[in-house]
Amino acid sequence: MARIPLRELCGYRAGDKGDIANVALFADDDETYALIVREVTDARVKEHFGAMVHGRVDRYEAANVRALNFVMQGALGGGGPRSLRADSLGKALGGALVRMEIDVPESMADRRRPRPDVSWADEILSD
């Protein structure tokens, strides 16, 4: 088994309304979808966020689009203008969720999603 972050296997979309955030994970193929269904449970997502999510986490499966949607109650510090967080939007939680690491079979460990070419930034950053 290998341990890799979800961002290597899945894309995501996130949103929010009030103090509720939702994050959907999208797998590229059926094998990856089966893996995230098994590994990325509502309990694991709740544990991953710890004290950031005060309410329950509900998971909804959408197998027809190879997606898992997580709805997190009490996730945004009161929501929008009520929150004292630096970033109180659902998209911040989406980025945080895909950093969660899961165990994958060695045969899937090399299925990393393509990375954008950012070599153009090397010159800028070296100055």
Descriptive overview:
Helices cover 25% and strands 29% of the residues. It has 127 residues and is α+β, with helices and mostly antiparallel strands. The protein has one domain (2-110). It has a four-stranded antiparallel sheet. A two-stranded antiparallel sheet has the order 1-6. The model has no long low-confidence stretch (mean pLDDT 87).
In a few lines, what is going on in this structure?
By secondary structure, this protein is an alpha+beta fold.
Quick tags:
25% helix, alpha+beta, 4-stranded antiparallel sheet, single chain, globular, 127 residues
What's the helical proportion of residues? 25-40%
- Could you say which overall geometry the principal axes of the C-alpha atoms support? globular
List the uncertain runs.
none
State which percent range the strand residues make up: 25-35%
Number of strands: 6
Quick check: average pLDDT?
A: 87
What's the structural domain tally? 1
Strand order of the largest sheet: 2-3-5-4
Number of helices: 4
Q: Kindly provide the radius of gyration, computed on alpha-carbon positions and rounded to a whole number of angstroms.
A: 16 Å
Q: How many angstroms separate the termini?
A: 41 Å
